[in-house]
Every structure is written in C-alpha cells, then in structure tokens.
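Example record

The entry below shows one chain as it appears in the dataset: sequence first, then structure tokens.
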Amino acid sequence: MEKNPLRDCRVSLVAIATLAVPASAHHSFAVYDADTVITLTGTVARYDWTNPHVYVFVDIDGEDGEAVEWALEGESTALLSRAGWSRTTLAPGDRISARVYRNRNPEQHEARILTVVTPDGTTLGRRTTNTTLPSVGARDLAGVWDALRDYGDYEFVRGALTEQGTAAVSAFDESQSPVQDCLAFATPITTILPYRSEIELAGDRIFIRSEFFAIERIVYMDGRRHADNGARTEQGHSIGSWDGDTLVVDTALFAPNPIGNWRGLPSGPRKHVVERFEPSPDRTQLRITFRVEDPDYLVDPWQGEIVWDYVPDGEILPFTCDPEAARRFATP
C-alpha cells in the first residue's frame, strides 16, 4: 500500500512557544515520575474495573516484612480492553509483577501501570498501538475512527498567555479538576485523546460521539448561526459546513471550564474553536486540524493537527464514570 502522507503526522501547534505540555500529562498523571521505572511484585488485594481509570490494589512486602498496600493506576476500561484486559483479568489473591512509574512523593504508595505480568505469565500493557492502516477506506466521514496512533508523541505548544491565564496555570492544582466530578474535558481536547469516535451523518445534523466519557456532539448543518444569548455547555454549540469533502465545524457558547484549554489552563465564555475534518486520499484516515481562540486566557490562538485511523469493524465501548474512582484520580 502506498504510504499515506498523513501517516507520520504529529501535533503541531502554531504559536509563540512559551509553554509545552506532553499529551500524556492530563489529570493527575503529572504526579508520577515518568523518568524512572520500578518493578513491584505482590498479591492483588482488590481489582477495580472502573472509569475514568482502572485500579489494582496490591500488597507489597515492605522492608520490615510488613505488607504495604499500593494503588496501581491503569488506563480506562476501553483502552485496557483493547490491550487484552477484562474485568476478570485479575482477582484477589493473584500474584503479579508490575512495571510502573511511582508517585513523585515517596510517602505515597501509588504508581501508574506500564505493564503487568499475570499469574499465567501473560504480559499486558496499558494500550494497544495501531501498527497498520486498514486495507479499505471509508465511503465518507461516517464510521468509527481511532485516535491512538502516535498519541504518546504529541506535544502541544501554546502561545503567550494573558495575565489571567498565567495566574491560573501558576495556581492550578488537581483538586480544581472537574474530572473528580465526572466532568469531561472540552472540545478540542476530547478529539486529541487516544479514544475511538463515531461519526454519524444524519442530514441536517452530524453526530460526533466520543468513547471518552460517552460525549456526544451535535453539529448543525442547516445554516443556523450561534445564538447571541444561547445556552452555554461544556462542549459548546457547533455549526458546520462542507468545503468539498472536508467538514468544517465552528464551535462557540462554551461554559467556563477550569481545565477547558488543557491541564491547568481554564477556558472562558469567549472561547471559539474551528475544526476541519479532512479525509486522506485513500479515506483510511481523517486529518483533524483545529484553531482555538480564547481572549480571556490566550494572547495568541493555538492550533493543532492530529490523525484518526478508520476502523471499519470497530466499536465504541461503554464509558461510565465512577465518582469514587474519579475523585481518587484527581487527588494530588
């Protein structure tokens, strides 16, 4: 198959480079030391198959011979399912070994899972990386698309922040994250995350359904405009148009969000996002570019580009947020 020019796409945010944020640093993953990998061996005390993240509680032998319980944090059930996990993969009493990033605070017995070796010797990772493109392309934008490819390599560069934005980033801590209340990120961040999405073309409306937090966006294609005093929502109000076979989506009327412009940077009521969903020539991928304006927090707009892979036989897995797991995840 001829190499697709979108295959090696990376996110490129065109702005003055004053702040770079790795794509993996969302929610409380920042509390883990990603520069050091340790191995923990112990006995499973509890296995919580929950969202937004799965947890494995493991009794590890301490230096004094006393067992110490560690909380090992995994990905969501959707991502782990595609990596070979299930709700019955582990059970209390199982002896496992895990490669992890541990909490930067040595007093916290918490770690982020990289791989786990199960009692039968199977090694399971946290995600399954897409290695090949589908052999058949989509007829149009409709269908299931996957954002996992190259996700860990994305780097976002924001331009200069306003005084208000700089102060917000400096003051941010995880206790402010709305994720602890099972509230998802706002557009376009949901597009960037390594989940699957389904697009449905329904005449004068287009539905974009993300696996992440089961978000559904409605793009109105009937020529309407954003209402002057329209209701504000977390994902905003989207209107669309066609530029050839490229879908152009204009979104406004966002509700203010404490992490609406990525981790630590809020979004305000004047946030405005324009996205373009452009199919590759062979229609095996969608190139998505976006531009975000938010004059309350951003001096310069920030722009990005990612790629979704077409998954002709793919499905969207359920994602029900568990409040207890969400509050645990947002704890600094």
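Notes for this example: The chain is about 10% helix and 35% strand. The domain at 28-125 is CATH 2.40.50.140 (OB fold (Dihydrolipoamide Acetyltransferase, E2P)).
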